[in-house]
Amino acid sequence: MSDNLGTRTVQRVHAEAPPRADLGGPAHAHRGPEAIDILFANPPAPDGGIWIRSQHRVGRRSREGMIWPQADLAQMAALFPERRVTVVDAIAERMSWRAFEALLDRLQPRYYVTQATAPTLQNDMYGAFMARARGARTIAFGTHVTPMPAATLEAYPALDYVLCGEPELTLRELVDALDSRQGAGDGSWLALERADAGLARSLAGLYRQADPTWAPVTTRGDSLTDRLASITGLAWRREGQVAVNAPRALMADLDALPLPRHDLLPLRRYRAPLVKGPYSFVVTSRGCPAGCRFCIKHVSYGRSVRFRSPEHVLAEVEQLVGLGVHSIHMYADLFTLNREHVMGICQGLLDRNLKVRWTCNSRVDYVDREMLALMARSGCWMISWGIESGDQEMLRRMHKGTTLEEIRRAVGWAHEAGIRNWGYFIIGLPGETDASIQRTIALAKALPLDLVLFHIAAPHPGTPFFFEVVENGWFRPGTRWEDVDMDRSTVLDYPDLSAEELERWAQRAFRAWALRPRPLWTYLKMLLGSPRLWRAAVEIGWESLGWVRGANSR
Q1: DSSP class per residue in 229-260
Q2: What pLDDT does 81 receive?
Q3: What angle do CA 287, 288, 292 make, to 5 degrees?
């Protein structure tokens, strides 16, 4: 556990703000000097290991020793400049549940905000239970609760509210509504206007883009019930019954959001393969137009795509450089989708002389030689490619929309530009056979890849793949949510390809790729260059680096 959590707690209360009012929920009888308003929590891992997850992705064990920065929590924290807020990343801090419980006792949060994913659901709700027992109002967001808000609230009484879809604007209105039960306190919309008038105008603009008649939630109705009922994107309990409000429209202008509070994150504890020193994520866009049947990201963002301007992205990069971060992942569902956007970011990095090393993800059909060359010159040193399969029929079945020729060409171009390639493959989607898996292994070995992950397909709630599995009865008997995307087994059991066979193929695929001179040398450099990664491998087993299994779906 970090000794510096207190230094990452911020208080920005206007000098003329009225005394703090009760913000909803059972009040703490004695609030200590470290008591805060909102705790944004990435709770301890289910098994004490390392899990990676984010706002619109699922949770999975980090077999590659990677710890993801909680940029989504930092983004939500930035919406409350008038509040005492803290981001706690218990996974990065390697915090035990006992230490997390002590932290809750010390910080006494009035609101507890956390994400929930299928494979960590019971674990996530345990954190909510502990916070609720201490008087906090508990709020969850993420890829599991968005498609299943009512079922989650009904199953877990300690969870008070669910933010469906994009969480930021719904969260701001929810907190304002709960604050309003005793009048406009220092956490109300009025207090935001006092603390940061510019942010208040930007957020009001976002609300009015979806509803020109928008007014602060504190002005809606005479009761808290009326105000909660008016918040789009919210699921809650109304007179003992779960209510799911109308969905919230996606934000049109991402530049209107404040820059994330990266300063609240334990930046020096994050790590990724072949990355030295602190690193973090910069979210450059939201959404992806592709129709891949297995992908979870459409649950939160649909298929619309919204881009931050290059200038806004560069301002965040400069902020991170100021915090001592020179390794960045351009985090997007599809970073290279808009060529002009990518070129603008790359040229801006060069023009501003920002000395950063950065990575991104891409599809093979949204790159060209010139763009890859500029990316390399501006600091891009690795691209994660969603390749998925080496069988053209499987690519068609999963609605990937790419060809084997595009795969070979794009990965080859990146290699020519001096950019390393990380290939992601999925084994076990409907239609898979022994022969198609063998073609995938052959393609992985033929491509100039520096790293690979072979995932076993996982059917996540809200995806077309999930509904196909349910309809055909392909779930293994006794499957729980926590089993979906587990590292040590799969939940799929096809008539012609059993779960045991899928697991054996995943192991065989990685070994066939890795047990060759070049991959072995790459992994050795990773271990020798990172004592932390070596310790992680020892602590949680070689499977953390993918040496044993490949049993997760992104």
Answers
A1: HT-TTEEEEETTEEEEPPPPPPPS-GGGSPPP
A2: 95
A3: 135
